[in-house]
Design a protein that fits this description.
heterodimer; A: 168 residues; mainly alpha; Four Helix Bundle (Hemerythrin (Met), subunit A); two-stranded antiparallel sheet; globular; B: 109 residues; 4 helices; 75% helix; elongated
């Protein structure tokens, strides 16, 4: 982000963007696709271009936040929140025209967005996640405009509940 | 009884005198009111100044410190090697029910 005078105010480092992009490509190829049932796997593909857009937007947001808060590093709840928001907004996973449509396929981007966000948290938190709440998170991503900071609070609550042994 | 010019002059003078006196009285009353209000304002200002002196700017800073700096509280973790995230993702895939939810399909029947 720059002003008219050419002074760059928010300038995420290219190496950070590249590193996170590569991590997310690996996440998709090595973990996410493996977790999806085989019958669905041929129904979609990853648009690396759209994923790159999501990663760039993520870093723009995170850098703006860090400039405002004076933080060197954003905390894990915000990392997760901004990741979830931007992946679900850019829809980097594209459905093929010949795909056999199912709930899994229709919500594949929201599922990937949540999975990518959850990698910033302790897996023990996700072990407390229940099906109905997962559905609610998908519903929220599709139908509601919850801002990233709202998601960060939600994730904070999930984590705090899980640490106290609460299933949510 | 005869009502001559002198009497007329006396009556008119009396009316004018009464008018002038009324205007003067109103003017004095207004001035007094203004003075009272000015005194009231001055007293209030003194009260505010006194309470500020009692609170002190440093106390205000102390009281608001948490609110103003809370946003700087969280410093996140940072990993140069992002395989940390991929390892967590692997654990999530293998050890949590997340993918059973992702793979669940819903239909009308």
């Amino acid at each position: 982000m720059s002003m008219e005078g050419g002074e760059v105010l928010i300038n995420p480092e290219e190496k950070d963007i590249k590193k996170r992009f590569e991590t997310l490509v690996k996440l998709y190829e090595e973990q996410f696709c493996l977790g999806i049932e085989e019958k669905h796997r041929d129904s979609f593909f990853l648009s690396k271009e759209l994923l790159h857009c999501a990663v760039t937007a993520y870093f723009d947001d995170i850098y703006k936040y860090k400039a405002y808060a004076g933080s060197k590093y954003a905390d894990r709840h915000k990392q997760a929140a901004y990741t979830i928001i931007w992946i679900s907004r850019f829809h980097p996973i594209q459905i093929k025209p010949e795909a056999k449509i199912s709930t899994t396929v229709l919500t594949i981007n929201e599922a990937f967005a949540l999975y990518a966000g959850f990698m910033f948290l302790d897996p023990a938190v996700i072990s407390k996640l229940q099906g109905s709440f997962y559905q609610h998170l998908i519903y929220t991503l599709v139908y509601r405009e919850l801002p990233a900071k709202g998601w960060a609070t939600l994730i904070y609550l999930m984590e705090t509940g899980a640490m106290k042994g609460v299933q949510f | 009884m005869k009502f001559d010019f002198v009497d007329l002059f006396a009556v008119i003078s009396a009316f004018i005198g009464a008018g002038i006196a009324t205007v003067e009285i109103i003017s004095i009353w207004k001035k007094k009111k203004e003075l009272r209000e000015a005194e009231k304002r001055r007293k209030m200002e003194v009260e505010v100044m006194n309470s500020l002196d009692k609170t002190g700017y440093s106390s205000i800073k102390n009281a608001t410190f948490w609110l103003e700096h809370e946003r700087q509280r969280n410093q996140g973790d940072h990993y140069e090697d992002e395989s940390v995230y991929l390892n967590r993702a692997k654990t999530i895939r293998e050890k949590t029910p997340l993918f059973s939810y992702i793979n669940t399909n819903y239909s009308l029947s």
